[in-house]
Amino acid sequence: MAGWCGIQLEDEKYEIAIVIDEKYWGMGKKVFYDIMRWAKDLGHDDIYIHFLHTRPEYKFLRSMSTKVYKSELLGSKFTTYKLAVK
Question: Domains in the chain: how many in total?
Fold first, then answer.
């Protein structure tokens, strides 16, 4: 199994969840674009993705985002990207 992914409702916002086994790292962008197509098919206007604050910023996500901000979920700090679904 390479991992799992999906779109989940959290605090009235739809967010992307992607978990990929280390040996499949590098496939995340493809999975991300597939999920964005699902979000469009499902009729979502915006979708969010959270990365632990210790992760480097993702330039491709920043360029696509309508907003990038620091957030806290369940006691952990994240960088959150708000993306318009197109």
Answer: 1
